[in-house]
């Protein structure tokens, strides 16, 4: 055992060996004389300090070749890295167990220790993001997912959890974007596909322009003509509105065949008249325009399965994001 134990002189001898190899390289490379002289002085100082002197060559010949200083350093770093990795993995497993036990706050602490032990792991940041989402801290989850993707841009789970965090905060268009990226990386994942469809549907409902393009469907009148979502009785009580409506119909009638029955106008023609009338109200009577808009909004609630007041079933107003697969 004592023969294999390194002596105090092994390290300085390894340093001198390293300096000799550097000296040889730079001599062959025609390095400036100042550098070569500095290396030689350093070697002499180490020999003098440790009493190596001229006996160094004879002692080295009697011993087996020692590993280079670079090899010793690399081996030490590898051993340390392995130990660090094992410790971090143990902390990650502890966090996973805490998540399984529905203890996300403690799981955050465990994942944080894992990150501090081995920084830069996409997995540790992504797992902590899941714990933050469980706690409802979705902004912290977003930050962790972004750190995970900075470490591993191809990590599908980080995109998926980023999508979940954005959906939970009502940013469904962003959620759909990141669910789409996750699905590109893992095209066979059913959960990402379902979440992408859910996010797209939620984004369409939340988009005001989409609502204008797809107005709530109204029940037809008894004679089959479409029912317009406007309280015309309220309009009849507004002289300006009534006068403009009368003038608008008169103008349109002048360009139509005498035999045409205005009651038989198509839905598109009626909609065009409505848009013209709405533009007039917005510029001439903003208060009435707001009242009519409110009337339209009230008339559309509950008809597409997402509006309406309290209650349950399809008419229940969602007070939280849709259910996503985490």
TrEMBL record:
Compositionally biased region (Gly residues): 299-314
This protein's record includes keyword Repeat: yes
Gene3D superfamilies documented for this protein: Immunoglobulin FC, subunit C, Tetratricopeptide repeat domain
Region (Disordered): 200-230, 291-326
Biased composition (Low complexity): 200-222
Annotated signal sequence range: none
All residue ranges annotated as the SGTA homodimerisation domain in the record: 7-64
SUPFAM superfamilies linked: TPR-like (SSF48452)
Keywords: Repeat, TPR repeat
The organism's place on the tree of life at top rank: Eukaryota
Homology family: Belongs to the SGT family.
Protein name per UniProt: SGTA homodimerisation domain-containing protein
Organism: Macrostomum lignano
């Amino acid at each position: 055992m004592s023969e294999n134990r390194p002596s105090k002189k092994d390290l300085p001898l390894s340093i001198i060996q390293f300096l000799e190899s550097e000296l040889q390289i730079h001599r062959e490379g025609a390095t400036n004389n100042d550098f070569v002289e500095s290396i030689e002085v350093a070697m002499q100082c180490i020999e003098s300090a440790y009493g190596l002197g001229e006996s160094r060559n004879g002692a080295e010949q009697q011993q087996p070749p020692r590993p280079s200083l670079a090899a010793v350093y690399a081996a030490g770093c590898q051993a340390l890295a392995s130990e660090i990795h094992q410790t971090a993995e143990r902390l990650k497993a502890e966090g996973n167990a805490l998540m399984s036990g529905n203890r996300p706050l403690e799981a955050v602490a465990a994942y944080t220790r894992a990150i501090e032990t081995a920084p830069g792991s996409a997995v540790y940041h992504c797992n902590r993001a899941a714990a933050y989402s469980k706690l409802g801290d979705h902004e912290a989850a977003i930050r962790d997912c972004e750190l995970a993707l900075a470490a591993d841009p191809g990590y599908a789970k980080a995109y998926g959890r980023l999508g979940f965090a954005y959906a939970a905060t009502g940013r469904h268009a962003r959620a759909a974007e990141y669910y789409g990226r996750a699905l590109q990386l893992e095209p066979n994942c059913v959960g990402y596909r379902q979440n992408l469809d859910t996010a797209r549907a939620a984004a369409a409902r939340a988009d005001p322009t989409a609502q204008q393009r797809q107005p709530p469907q109204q029940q037809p009148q008894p004679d089959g003509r479409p029912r317009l979502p406007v309280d015309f009785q309220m309009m009849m009580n507004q002289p300006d509105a009534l006068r403009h409506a009368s003038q608008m119909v008169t103008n349109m009638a002048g360009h139509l065949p005498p035999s045409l029955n205005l009651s038989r106008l198509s839905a598109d023609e009626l909609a065009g008249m409505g848009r013209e009338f709405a533009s007039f109200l917005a510029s001439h009577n903003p208060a009435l325009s707001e009242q009519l808009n409110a009337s339209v909004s009230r008339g559309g609630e509950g008809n597409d399965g997402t509006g309406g007041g309290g209650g349950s079933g399809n008419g229940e107003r969602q007070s939280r994001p849709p259910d996503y697969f985490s």
